Amino acid sequence: MFNLFLAVFPEIFLINATLILLIHGVVFSTSKKYDYPPLASNVGWLGLLSVLITILLLAAGAPPPTIAQFFWNNFFRKDDFTYYCQIFLLLSTAGTILMCFDYFEQERFNAFEFIVSILLATRSMLLMISAYDPIAMYPAIEPQSLCFYVIAASKRNSEFSTEAGLKYLILGAFPSGILLFG
């Protein structure tokens, strides 16, 4: 029998690890005791570790071959295709985080929120891959787009970055409203 807990445990683990990284970043970046340390590299390596652990958890809860499993009233589906797409997504996320280290160093960019936003968007994409119903897909798309708005506007001193984030927010609101209200 296909275990429901193993089907959703990688997503649960990734969201919990992301929230712990967010708490870690907020506590230590505002700490006078530790002299406000730069945390982008530290949170980046911990985020990469959490993505790799999520890949292992996904492999441990792999569905039986050629059997599609539906759960939560047919809102989500797990089969071979969703399994391989999720593995590909997590490997791409690991590569993205690795590329971020060079970017942080070149641009002298020290915002741990960038990695947290990437991990939150990845969690939303994992749920969107498994979604079998439009009602389940919509709540997965919205947090993903919100994270991408934040990533687009993440350079606080750049006027172009702020403009890009605002345009992305406005242009993303129209399709969302059409999808939601019909």
What would your notes on this structure say?
- With 182 residues, this protein is mainly alpha-helical.
- The chain has one domain (1-181).
- 74% of the residues lie in helices and 3% in strands.
- It is built from six helices and two strands, in the order ααββαααα.
- It has helices spanning 4-29, 40-60, 80-107, 113-130, 134-152, 159-181, and strands spanning 69-71, 76-78.
- It has a two-stranded antiparallel sheet.
- Helix 1 runs antiparallel to helix 2 (40-60), helix 1 (4-29) runs antiparallel to helix 4 (113-130) and helix 2 runs parallel beside helix 4.
- The longest helix has 28 residues, at 80-107.
- It is globular.
- The termini are far apart.
- The relative contact order is 0.12.
Which descriptor suits the 3D outline? Answer: globular
The total beta strand count reads 2
Strand content: under 5%
Count up the domains. 1
Question: Helix share of residues?
Answer: over 70%
- Strands in their spatial order, largest beta sheet: 1-2
Domain NADH:quinone oxidoreductase/Mrp antiporter transmembrane: 131-182
Pfam families: Proton_antipo_M
Keywords: Membrane, Mitochondrion, NAD, Translocase, Transmembrane, Transmembrane helix, Transport
Main location: membrane
